[in-house]
Amino acid sequence: MPLEANGRYFEDYPPGTVIEGGAVAVSESDIVEFARRYDPQTMHTDPAAAAHGHFGGLIASGWHTAALMMRLFAAHFLSPASSLASPGIDELRWLKPVRPGDVLSLRVTVTEARRSRSKPDQGIVRSHVEVLNQEGEIVMSLKPISLIRCRPS
User: Fold this and answer.
1) Domain residues for 102?
2) Residue 20 backbone dihedrals phi, psi, to 5 degrees
3) How far is residue 136's CA from residue 152's CA, in Å, rounded to a whole number?
4) Assuming Cys at both sites, which of 56, 90, 134, 139 could form a disulfide with 143, CB separation 3.0 to 4.6 Å?
5) Which of 103, 79, 109 lies closest to 19, judged by CA?
6) Residue 40: which residues within 8 A CB-CB, separation 6 or more?
């Protein structure tokens, strides 16, 4: 059983570790508010217009889903004691639309963990993140790279 996020260091992220967490509800007002500020397309901002659009109703911006993922990732996977930064992500995919009323959760699988050659007090953790809705369907996936501090000796 993985440690709580607050107590994790690089050594606590061996490949194969699976960490789950959530949930966060997505409301219509949250979708519209986010989209009006950051992704003003009618499929995200106008329920009436979205009802006649490609998705048959209002959907969350993919960037809104990514922001919610980050909230869950920070709360359940990263440790404030050891998380240093991220040089990026690979393979971000939006697989299913997120709709009002969906409840999202997170499943993170550590795929690689190696100590940094240039900075031996930290390691590089690669993971595969899946964001799931209340039906267990994967709505988004990505492969982040995290720089994690090693446990102090």
Assistant:
1) 5-26+60-149
2) -120, 155
3) 38
4) 90
5) 109
6) none
Q: Cβ of 110: how many Cβ atoms within 10 Å?
A: 20
Q: Which of 151, 22, 9 is nearest to 79 (CA)?
A: 9
Q: Name the band, by pLDDT with cuts 50, 70 and 90, for residue 5.
A: low
Please state, rounded to an integer, the average pLDDT across all residues of the chain.
95
Strand partners, 109: 18, 128
pLDDT of residue 1: 35
pLDDT tens across 95-135, in order?
999 999 999 999 999 999 999 999 999 999 999 999 999 99
**Number of structural domains, the chain?**
1
Contact 71, 103 (CB under 8 A): no
